[in-house]
Amino acid sequence: MKWDMLDEEPCSLSRTVAVVGDRWTLLILRECFLRVRRFEAFQSSLQITRHLLSERLKKLVRFGILRRVPYSEAPKRYEYILTQKGLDLYPIIMAMVHWGDTHMGDERGRPLLHEHKNCGKLFDPVMVCSECGEVLHAKQVHVHAGPGRREVVG
Amino acid sequence: MKWDMLDEEPCSLSRTVAVVGDRWTLLILRECFLRVRRFEAFQSSLQITRHLLSERLKKLVRFGILRRVPYSEAPKRYEYILTQKGLDLYPIIMAMVHWGDTHMGDERGRPLLHEHKNCGKLFDPVMVCSECGEVLHAKQVHVHAGPGRREVVG
DNA sequence: AAGCTATAGTTCTAAAATAGAACTGTCAAA
DNA sequence: TTTGACAGTTCTATTTTAGAACTATAGCTT
């Protein structure tokens, strides 16, 4: 499979993977959610090569996940800010953080704790059914072909 | 950064990314959740090269996400089955599917629909706070350093 | 005015990962 | 005895990534 075809597959997972399915992109997004916005800041906190950082930021802008916003004229400088489409990636990032907390921890405990401002408590993210509110488990879900399905499933 | 160090970073996202942060691994996991279990089945449905498929399956077994279970003696043949650790990746996969449904759809509609067996309805996955049950948004979450934090955040 | 620093990149070469195809080994069925 | 299914492994060519150096703009320092 060629990767430039991945975002046209009849599969929502493939299409998401086409955009955020590589290591650096996910780490860049982590920084975005931690309020990092500038080229140098991404570079020094991630130790990513400048070349790849430049590439990935362009791609995220192209897909509408980041906006490139000028913060200084003369010299022209820009920062990268999450769009709504980008903010909507939050559940993906949090699901990954939570899985890492649960299954990849060491004896030192969690690197970060998350507080929900609405209720004031430290929390874990939980995925529930939009209809009944119950916690979701893979085995309780049945998959149907939808209208956008062609030959490949997903 | 070297990728073999990524799973030792003091960051749960990095550690998760070290395991499932590449395109083929995520697509293989999609197939796992769609009940695919055998080498040939993965290969033909994904069009992945046999070399890489072999590599990725080994890695997923090594990290305890898949179990390699014999289903035939003479000739010895195995299938790959999600462990509990693997099943726990479901929220990540579903979050990606949902983002793709929302932001990467085309005029044909969704490729797949999901039915929750418990309530019988077609649903979307929603991420909520474990403490108060409210829907989570990035801006309502405050991040604290936890005990396992060293220098890098995440 | 000349030189240093900060920021945001681009360009180059070497190393690593992936694609694509062919090959191996085991056994069952025709 | 030959063919086919299954689960890989091995090989070369191409693409991607790493790592370092370089470019460009402008402010600040001496």
Report what the structure shows.
The structure is a homodimer of 154-residue chains. Chain A has 154 residues and is an alpha+beta fold. Chain A has one domain: Arc Repressor Mutant, subunit A (Orthogonal Bundle), CATH 1.10.10.10. Chain A is built from 6 helices and 6 strands. In chain A, the strands form 2 sheets. In chain A, strands 1-2 form a two-stranded antiparallel ribbon. The first copy, chain A, has a two-stranded antiparallel sheet with strand order 3-4. In chain A, strand 3 and strand 4 form a beta hairpin. Chain A is globular, with a radius of gyration of 18 Å. The mean pLDDT of chain A is 95. Chains A and B meet through helix 1, helix 2, helix 6, strand 3 and strand 4 of A and helix 1, helix 2, helix 6, strand 3 and strand 4 of B. Strand 3 of chain A pairs antiparallel with strand 6 of chain B. Chain A binds a DNA duplex (30 and 30 nucleotides) through helix 3 and helix 4. Chains A, B: It comes from Bradyrhizobium sacchari. Chains A, B: GO terms for molecular function: DNA binding. Chains A, B: Pfam families: HxlR. Chains A, B: Keywords: DNA-binding, Transcription, Transcription regulation. Chains A, B: This is HxlR family transcriptional regulator.
